[in-house]
Amino acid sequence: MEKELFDFVAERANILAAADTSKQDTKEAAQAWKDAVAADDSDAAVEAATNDLLDFLEGRMLGIDDLIAFAEGPAADIMGAEAAAGMLAGAKARKAEGWKYCICEAHVAAAELLGKFGRIEL
Question: How far is C-alpha 44 from the chain's CA centre?
Fold first, then answer.
């Protein structure tokens, strides 16, 4: 894997491993990628670890319409009215720009990875 692409994946794996919005299993999958490439930085190992991470992320994306429905519904009870209103405004603005997925840090990183490797259309 070329250095620029490796750095792109590494940056997003770091986000996924640390983001408050990442679920625990996502954090673990991102950490597994980091551990795998630290143990063996050969092209074959990096590509295998990257494919494992992409396979894990694929199908886990929250659509922007689902985010909007959450923000309009139970989000206020969970996060508070102000946070839910901010989430809703942000989601509607991104949808108007053509964004298809959740706008949280973890989903943005995952979408960028999946899009870069042709697994989803951004």
Answer: 24
31 and 76, same domain (yes or no) = no
Same domain for 41 and 58? yes
Q: How far is 122 from 111, CA to CA, in rounded Å?
A: 7
Reported as type and span, the H/E element at residue 62 is: none
| DSSP tag of 21 | T
Domain that holds residue 75: 68-99
- The CA distances from residue 5 to 80, 87, 88, 94, 112, in Å, are 39, 31, 33, 26, 12
- Over residues 55-77, the pLDDT tens digits come to 999 999 999 999 999 999 999 99
Tokens 């990096």 — which residue?
46
Residues 52 and 1 in one domain: yes
Instruction: Write down the pTM of the prediction.
Output: 0.90
